[in-house]
């Protein structure tokens, strides 16, 4: 090899990171070899500094890294980098430009420091420039920091950075290799494209220019050549194209060779081209030039690329399939210690776990806030293998258990989130130790910042349905364990007020809801909750502990808990020696039918907050009876009065639904009182026939209404907005001349965004227009009346248990439902002075089943005060048919006592008379009982 070629070889690679071989000494230095790192065959790392030519300093041991297995090293001009097998990056040396990446202002840090900004990211390679540092992850994410005066960090500006910064411009380019010059950087993509950025004054970027580049730019001259290797010198770059078996160079070599170049090389040229002859040999014969150049190219390929820096480099510890199979098949004691060492190395490191289950089909190179890059099938396969060996499984679990408290609450990369997807599936064994570790995992997840938790939720939502279902099952098990374990301690421990596993389960439910309910609600129910609620009551534990996690209850149990919670608030206890009595606090509520709303409003305006905790006892003046039926009747009549168009309280739509008015200033406290009335109905377990759209119930539960909700309220407008979203013709859309405004009643115009009247709706912005329109109608325009309504609702229903109900459940609870099962109604009847076999009873059911559906609904209102079915079906609605024992049955009409759901049915002489009298009763009593 010629001296010139040797100089190029040393100069091109001396500042690069090199792979660490277990059986040989590895040497890494800066460009002028004044700073040298030496990794010896015994695993020790040494450092040398030279202050003057021909004066080599004594090697000093880097003691702080003595317990770490180093896999990669790199030297800048005055700083060092070392990557460990456990995925930790350490830096030390000069820090005048932040090139150590440790967020420190100290100009010199002599001892290795952990780069915490890269915690958990599985690194593939590290590289050091003159005073900047660059790393690339296993999934192609590039991070840079340090000096940036020429844009060598690729961040689009020239400001220095003292901590790792993500190079967003390379996000989609699958980087696999990096190299740094003094002030420039080169990045190689998986597809063989070369990107350069930073100082370009000597042509070292290869863009046929001497301009600096602040963001990565592809080297166009090499487009399609599929570069496999790149190496940067101080002011030049070398690349290797295997398909052509050529080494290309560009940049400046002045001062490095005996035969100095007269001009910089601005584009990549092969080293054996006529333009490059002067780099490697003096002017000789043509034959000698070719011979020398060929020898030089072969030396570069063999000594430089293939032997010293072929990639992938030695990397961090990750799981290998053959290793895992060996763990399981060979459990002899002599092999156990090496196995434990590998397990400890991988599972004590967040980075190693994140790098161990990559989707090798290339998906992991697309890792983002939506794509995890994890091969979940590989995770499950690993779990199945280790679960067959108790010793291996126990060791893996132990290391995970020790790792979890150290997980960062603010991950820096989407690659950090893989650990939260992987670990639950490795801990799914049904035993107490796994449950304990899963609880720690739940705590770690809940420590995440809000924005980071949202990223994890997005990744959960993109799991395959089977994997998501499995995740739910795992957290259901640990949630049940978390609920039962304190109960088993009886009164020896205080029951926890926060159960992390249940919080995760509730979050998973919300993720499932936003994803369109891939799993039905019953997948989240915990069947044992009925017994647990009973134990809570026996032990005097407040049910408020459970109310925060509604996803684990079915509707029936939610209703039961709500009733119990309301009863708790409406009760007081008198304790006597040997005797405990429970008394219900009641609010006597007298009203007159002829001025019902007036009386209700007066009661509500004059009430104290404590009165709303009492159960309502309604009395209609001049009428007999009391009980649940009269409460239902009060709310039913009041709702109808409020929703009467003549009342002017709500806006009415052709859909038959009502909504808040846009301008509510003239309504005083009407909506506060209306909300209070609705809250009282919930607290007193009564239905109210308010024709509200589902948008109201979503807003009550802090769920954002959608276009579909607007379409339910105003079908014509909803359909038009959907057509706008579907329109394919840009010309047709623009011809409508729509702008970002909303026309109000009376001709006033409201801009949906600033300067909206001058912004035309196009295909580009139509989604924004529709979203703003929906938000205005259902949120912004009714903000004041809705806020008043909710303040009243919270006053009227002091029990927090109503928040357990989902929007659709809250709608059913308040309005009842219309899934009528009339045969179940018959099944639930109890008879007084009658037997089921009596002819009158047989005639009644024969007549009833022949009635049209609307007449059956009126009969339901006749005996109960509402034409809606109470939640959970008619099995909870038991009504009575009683013989009034009148002397002349044919002269009497059927009557009802709504307060206790009783139908008084005389013994008519014929079916025809019964039918005539029954129809008259339910038609002309306006759906309400006579008593």
3D architecture notes:
- This is HECT domain-containing protein.
- It holds the Pfam family WD40_RLD.
- One of its GO terms (molecular function) is ubiquitin protein ligase activity.
- The protein is of the alpha+beta class and 931 residues long.
- The protein is 37% helix and 17% strand.
- The chain is elongated, with a radius of gyration of 39 Å.
- It starts with a helix and ends in a 7-residue tail after the last helix.
Compact description:
This protein has 931 residues and is α+β, with helices and mostly antiparallel strands.
Q: Give me the Rg, rounded.
A: 39 Å
Q: Oligomeric form of this entry? A: single chain
Uncertain residue ranges: 1-19, 255-261, 273-299, 301-312, 574-581, 926-931
Helix proportion? 25-40%
Distance between the termini: 114 Å
CATH architecture of the largest domain: 7 Propeller
Structural class: alpha+beta
For the record, the CATH class of the largest domain is Mainly Beta
Shape: elongated
Q: Largest sheet, if any?
A: 5 strands, antiparallel
At the fold tier of CATH, the topology name of the largest domain is Methylamine Dehydrogenase, Chain H
Helical region count? Answer: 30
Number of strands: 33
Number of domains: 5
Estimated share of beta-strand residues: 15-25%
Strand order, biggest sheet?
1-6-7-8-9
CATH superfamily of the largest domain: Regulator of chromosome condensation 1/beta-lactamase-inhibitor protein II
**pLDDT averaged over residues:** 84
Which keywords apply here?
17% strand; four-stranded antiparallel β-sheet; 931 residues; disordered N terminus; 33 strands; Hect, E3 ligase catalytic domain fold; single chain; Methylamine Dehydrogenase, Chain H; 5 domains; alpha+beta; five-stranded antiparallel β-sheet
């Amino acid at each position: 090899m010629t001296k010139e070629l040797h100089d190029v070889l040393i100069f091109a690679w001396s500042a690069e990171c090199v792979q660490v071989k277990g059986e040989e000494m590895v040497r890494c230095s800066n460009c002028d070899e004044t700073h040298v790192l030496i990794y010896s065959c015994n695993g020790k790392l040494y450092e040398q500094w030279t202050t003057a030519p021909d004066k080599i300093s004594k090697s000093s041991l880097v003691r702080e890294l003595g317990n770490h297995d180093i896999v990669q090293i790199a030297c800048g001009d005055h700083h060092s980098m070392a990557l460990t097998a456990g995925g930790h990056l350490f830096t030390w040396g000069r820090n005048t430009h932040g090139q150590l990446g440790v967020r420190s202002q100290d100009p010199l840090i002599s001892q290795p420091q952990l780069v915490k900004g890269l915690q958990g990211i599985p690194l593939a390679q590290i590289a050091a420039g003159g005073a900047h540092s660059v790393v690339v992850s296993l999934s192609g994410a590039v991070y840079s920091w340090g000096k940036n005066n020429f844009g060598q960090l690729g961040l689009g500006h020239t400001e220095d950075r003292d901590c790792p910064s993500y190079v967003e411009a390379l996000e989609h380019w699958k980087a696999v290799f990096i190299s740094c010059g003094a002030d420039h950087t080169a990045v190689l993509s998986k597809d063989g494209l070369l990107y350069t950025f930073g100082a370009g004054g000597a042509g070292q970027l290869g863009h046929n220019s001497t301009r600096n580049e602040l963001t990565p730019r592809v080297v166009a001259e090499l487009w399609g050549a599929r570069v496999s290797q790149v190496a940067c010198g101080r002011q030049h770059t070398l690349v290797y194209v295997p398909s052509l078996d050529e080494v290309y160079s560009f940049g400046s070599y002045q001062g490095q060779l005996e035969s100095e170049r007269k001009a910089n090389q601005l584009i990549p040229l092969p080293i054996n081209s006529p333009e490059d002859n002067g780099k490697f040999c003096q002017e000789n014969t043509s034959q000698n030039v070719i011979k020398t150049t060929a020898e030089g190219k072969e030396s570069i390929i063999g000594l430089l690329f293939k032997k010293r820096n072929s990639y992938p480099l030695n990397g961090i510890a990750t799981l290998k399939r053959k290793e895992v199979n060996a763990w399981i098949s060979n459990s002899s004691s002599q092999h156990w210690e090496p196995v434990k060492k590998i397990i400890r190395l991988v599972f004590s490191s967040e980075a190693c776990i994140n790098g161990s289950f990559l989707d090798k089909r290339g998906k992991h190179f697309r890792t983002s806030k939506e794509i995890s890059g994890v091969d979940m099938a590989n995770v499950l396969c690993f779990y199945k293998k280790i679960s067959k060996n108790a010793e291996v499984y126990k060791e893996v679990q132990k290391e995970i258990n020790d790792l979890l408290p150290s997980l960062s609450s603010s991950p820096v990369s989407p690659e950090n989130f893989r650990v939260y997807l992987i670990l639950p599936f490795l801990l799914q064994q049904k035993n107490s130790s796994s449950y304990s570790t899963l609880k720690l995992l739940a705590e770690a997840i809940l420590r995440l910042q809000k924005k980071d938790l949202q990223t994890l939720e997005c990744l959960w939502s993109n799991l395959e349905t089977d994997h998501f279902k499995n995740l739910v099952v795992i957290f259901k098990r640990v949630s049940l364990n978390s609920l039962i374990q304190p109960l088993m301690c009886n009164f020896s421990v205080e029951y926890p007020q926060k159960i992390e596993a249940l919080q995760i389960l509730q979050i998973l439910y919300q993720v499932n809801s936003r994803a369109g309910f891939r799993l039905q609600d019953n997948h989240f129910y915990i069947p044992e909750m009925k017994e647990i609620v009973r134990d809570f009551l026996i032990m005097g534990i407040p049910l408020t502990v459970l109310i925060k996690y509604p996803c684990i209850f079915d509707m029936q149990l939610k209703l039961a808990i709500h009733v119990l919670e309301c009863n708790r608030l409406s009760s007081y206890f008198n304790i006597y020696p040997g005797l405990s009595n429970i008394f219900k606090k009641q609010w006597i509520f007298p009203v007159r039918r002829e001025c019902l709303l007036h009386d209700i409003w007066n009661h509500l305006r004059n009430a104290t907050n404590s009165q709303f905790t009492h159960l309502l006892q309604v009395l209609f003046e001049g009428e007999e009876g009391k009980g649940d039926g009269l409460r239902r009747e009060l709310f039913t009549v009041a709702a109808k009065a409020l929703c009467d168009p003549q009342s002017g309280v709500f806006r009415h739509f052709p859909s038959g639904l009502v909504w808040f008015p846009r301008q509510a200033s003239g309504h005083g406290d009407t909506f506060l009182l209306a909300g209070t009335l609705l809250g009282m109905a919930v607290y007193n377990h009564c239905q109210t026939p308010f024709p509200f759209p589902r948008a109201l119930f979503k807003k009550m539960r802090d769920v954002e209404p959608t276009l579909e909700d607007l379409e339910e309220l105003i079908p014509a407008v909803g359909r038009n907005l959907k057509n706008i979203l579907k329109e394919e013709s840009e010309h047709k859309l623009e011809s409508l001349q729509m702008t970002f405004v909303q026309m109000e009643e009376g001709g006033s115009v409201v801009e949906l965004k600033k300067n909206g009247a001058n912004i035309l709706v196009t295909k580009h912005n139509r989604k924004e227009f529709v979203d703003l329109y929906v938000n205005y109608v259902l949120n912004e325009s009714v903000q004041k009346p809705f806020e008043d309504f909710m303040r009243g609702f919270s006053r009227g229903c002091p029990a927090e248990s109503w928040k357990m109900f989902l929007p659709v459940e809250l709608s059913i609870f308040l309005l009842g439902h219309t899934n009528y099962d009339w045969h179940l109604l018959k099944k639930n009847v109890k008879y007084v002075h009658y037997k089921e076999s009596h002819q009158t009873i047989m005639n009644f059911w024969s007549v009833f089943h022949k009635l049209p559906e609307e007449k059956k609904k009126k009969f339901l209102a006749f005996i109960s005060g509402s034409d809606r079915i109470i939640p959970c079906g008619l099995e909870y609605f038991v009504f009575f048919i009683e013989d009034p024992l009148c002397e002349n049955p044919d002269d009497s009409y059927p009557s009802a006592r709504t307060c206790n759901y009783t139908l008084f049915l005389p013994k008519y002489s014929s079916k025809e008379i019964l039918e005539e009298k029954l129809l008259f009763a339910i038609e002309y009593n306006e759906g309400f009982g006579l008593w």
